[in-house]
Structures are given as C-alpha cells and as structure tokens.
Amino acid sequence: MKIWDTAGQEQFKSLTKNFYKNSHGVVICYDVSNQKSFEKIQEWVNSIADNASTNIKMVLVGNKIDLTREVTKDEGKKLAENYKIPFFETSAKTDEGINECFRKLISDIIHEFKPNESIKLDTKAEEKKGCLC
Asked: Structure pTM?
C-alpha cells in the first residue's frame, strides 16, 4: 500500500490529479477546528470524481478532534451521508480513530477487487500503536 499525503496544499493540487488515476482509495480529511477546511471538501470530491476511476473507495475524516471544534460531528456525518461514503473522526495526536478509518478503507478496496475474499486485518493493531499489519 502506498499512501500520499498532500496536506491539501495548493502547490500539490496538480500532482494529486495524477495520483487519483492509479489509486484504489482516498482519505478525504478536514480539520474539525477549521471551518474553511470543511468547506473545501466539495472541491476535493469534485477533483476525485473528475480524475479517478468510478469505483474508487473513499472515506471522509474529520481530524484534530483533540482541538476546539468549528465543525460538529453531525455536520461531518451529514456530508458523508450525502456522498454515500463512510465517516470517521480522528486525532493524529492521540491516535484515536486512525486504525478504524484505514481498516474500513482497506476492507472496502479488497472487497471491490475480491468480493468473495475473507478479510482478516490484525485485531491486535492497537497494541502495536499505529500498525495495521
């Protein structure tokens, strides 16, 4: 698995279009303490729709839940429901929700390509702090 993080920076916007073409999954993140980052989600989803395969798997993630909120959990859930994609809230600082988010995305990707395949991701990953192996 290869993971690319452009951190939503404008300088990488032209590069991300190339990454979508060969990707099976995308984590779309916004900062729950920054309303503007939430408002940019539509741009990212449009870019993915324009440049990725139609069967790309996505998850929406509200990150930085350890900070003071400008975006409620309900707002994030509602947006994810509109796009019909899974929703997670995470904190990279405290490691909350990270493994669950990636497990879901990986599971959805595997099911897309091998629908009858039994998937077993390590349930002891939490003990290994940050490892899904």
From this structure: 0.83
